[in-house]
Amino acid sequence: MNPKTALIIGAVVAAIFGLLLVFAPGPMLKGFGLQAPDAAVTLARDVGVTLLGLAVLNWLAREATGTALRGILIGNLVVQVLEIVVNGYEIATGQLPSKAAPGLIIHAVLGAIFLLALRRAGGRVAT
């Protein structure tokens, strides 16, 4: 996977989910089988803002090279891997409804995209 393409995909996906979480947090939470009390809506919007920041970072870094590119790709990969671990645990323990399981597929696909881009960029995940 071309690193530029990976960062563009990451930017677009993060922007879509970020905008939805900021402007429609209730329906987004309900789509994952969660209640939408005020505290959850507040946290969802906070996550949405963070995703929008990640979208901007990925978009602006799409022409990056060298260690900067590897750092950004590794950071994106870490986000996806940790989301799989955390959400997988939450689903397994019943903290997150099984209705949210398809989200794991999104994280796995994005993780694979960033891993392939990192390999093409000549980066290493572990030293």
What does this 3D model show about the protein?
There is one protein chain. The chain has 127 residues and is mainly alpha-helical. It has one domain. It is 76% helix and 0% strand. The protein starts with a helix and ends in a 7-residue tail after the last helix. The model has no long low-confidence stretch (mean pLDDT 94).
The share of residues in helices is over 70%
Number of strands: 0
H/E element sequence: HHHHH
Average pLDDT level? 94
How large is the radius of gyration?
Answer: 15 Å
Write the layout of secondary structure elements.
Elements lengths: L2 H21 L1 H7 L6 H23 L5 H27 L9 H19 L7
Helix pairs in contact: 1-2, 1-3, 1-5, 4-5
Produce a short descriptive summary.
With 127 residues, this protein is mainly alpha-helical. It has five helices and no strands.
Core attributes:
single chain, 127 residues, mainly alpha, 5 helices
